[in-house]
Amino acid sequence: MSWFTAIFLVVLLLTLMLRAWLSFRQSRHVVAYRDAVPTAFAERIALPAHQKAVDYTLTKQAFGRIDAAVDAAILLAWTLGGGLAWLMAATGRLPVATLWQDVALLIAVGLIGGILGLPFSYYSTFNIEARFGFNRTSRALWLADLAKSTLLSLLIGIPLIALLLWLMQAAGTLWWLWAWFVFMGFQLLMLVVYPTLIAPLFNKFEPLPEGPTRTRIEALLARCGFTASGLFVMDGSRRSGHGNAYFTGLGRAKRVVFFDTLFNRLNEDEIEAVLAHELGHFRRHHIKKRIAFSALLSLAFLALLAWLLQQPWFYGGLGIPSDQIAEAMTRPGVALSLFMLVLPVFMFLFTPLGAAYSRRHEFEADAYAASHTCSGALEQALVRLYEDNATTLTPDPVHSAFYDSHPPATLRIAHLRALRCSD
User: Fold this and answer.
1) If DSSP states are collapsed to H, E and C, what string results for the chain?
2) CA-CA distance, 300 to 134, in Å (whole number)?
3) Mean pLDDT in the chain?
4) pLDDT greater than 70 at residue 252
5) What is the distance between the alpha carbons of residues 242 and 219, in angstroms, rounded to a whole number?
6) What is the pLDDT of residue 301?
């Protein structure tokens, strides 16, 4: 066993154990508080709704533990089990140029991974989500979404993958810098075209009806200095009972979108407050900061990949036989496949940093909303959404600190009440 194989196995095992430990902590904690609604919510959330959220959390945690174990087994099959080495040899026999052999390799890895994940997606949708009353997706719609998303991924992904692999072969030692420019250009392009060209392939977007709600929203947008290309209601209820609101796009393509599940559930004050929170992300430059962070991270990853391409131990340590390493080092698609497969394992321990950064943004967006609308209305909207989405009100603090991109319910409501008292 090589030193890198040992490191990989240790990190994989530690990651799997940590995920299981955090999951069991979460389960034990929510069970301990199952029989009483937290004081902050006692007047507005009934005990049966609270217990539904607990049961929903327990079910998802149990399912997540199985999913994590299967993911680890699949990763071992790809790497030390020889799956990728076999696929490399199979695509290497294709009567095409090396570039297209690598394109075929990456497409095959993606398709096989997607197929292996289908049973879990199906069970989550038609068992867990259906059992708790959230799923509204028919099997026909689920299959149609799967077909459309797969075709779209191929239409967009094949040219992008081919360009990236060509740069890796033809652009010299600084290929990673040129690849970074391409990647960032693609990301920005998606921000522009997604709202108008891609999202409508999956959902219907109707203009927000004329009336008092639209008038209030337009007034809020004007106060906040936000220019959008339109206000829309999306048919989220066609697939799920969960509610949400967001703005998307870049430049003149920005648009505000409400799930119909949320729009039909909240009153005018609450809708305005939720939108003000979303606008807070815009006005506090959270989107720009996240794009900048993503740009720096992707640049670092590409530079790391450029170095790993030249390291025989990287290939040998992840299951490429010694007699295939020389060939693998001439096919950048092999290194790219290995890198994408194992990167999540090595990055898992950094999850709390991203979660903490995101929670800080949520607090800032709440404060912005409270300064432009009624903080009490945002509090009411959040409580209603917690209940409707079966969000646990009593998460384990360690689990929450590790994973949660949004503050725990009790802390977030306390923060909003403090803002209201300071007004």
Assistant:
1) CCHHHHHHHHHHHHHHHHHHHHHHHHHHHHHHCCCCCCHHHCCCCCHHHHHHHHHHHHHHHHHHHHHHHHHHHHHHHHCCCCHHHHHHHHHHCCCCCHHHHHHHHHHHHHHHHHHHHHHHHHHHHHHHHHHCCCECCCHHHHHHHHHHHHHHHHHHHHHHHHHHHHHHHHCHHHHHHHHHHHHHHHHHHHHHHHHHHHHHHCCCEEECCCCHHHHHHHHHHHHHCCCCCCEEEECHHHCECCCCEEEECCHHHCEEEEEHHHHCCCCHHHHHHHHHHHHHHHHCCHHHHHHHHHHHHHHHHHHHHHHHCCCHHHHHCCCCCHHHHHHHCCCHHHHHHHHHHHHHHHHHHHHHHHHHHHHHHHHHHHHHHHHHCCHHHHHHHHHHHHHHCCCCCCCCHHHHHHHCCCCCHHHHHHHHHHHHHHC
2) 40
3) 91
4) no
5) 27
6) 96
Q: Are 346 and 356 in contact (CB under 8 A)?
A: no
Q: What mean pLDDT do residues 199-207 have?
A: 87
- For residues 371 and 283, the answer to whether their CB atoms sit within 8 Å is no
- What does the alpha-carbon distance between residue 247 and residue 120 come to, in Å, rounded to a whole number? 30
pLDDT in tens, 150-201: 999 999 999 999 999 999 999 989 999 999 999 999 988 888 888 888 888 8
Predicted local confidence at residue 1, as pLDDT = 79
Q: Taking the model in full, what pTM does it have?
A: 0.89
Give CA angle at 215 (214, 221), nearest 5°.
Answer: 85
Retrieve residue 350's tokens.
């950094």
Cβ neighbours of 13 (radius 10 Å): 12
Tell me the pairing of strands 255-259 and 231-234: parallel
Over range 281-288, report the average pLDDT. 86
Residue 267, sorted as left (phi over 0), alpha (psi -120 to 50) or beta, turns out to be beta
CA 134 to CA 350: how far, in whole Å?
A: 31
Q: What phi, psi does 89 have (nearest 5°)?
A: -65, -40
Phi and psi of 118, rounded to 5°?
Answer: -60, -45
According to DSSP, the β-strands at 205-207 and 231-234 are antiparallel
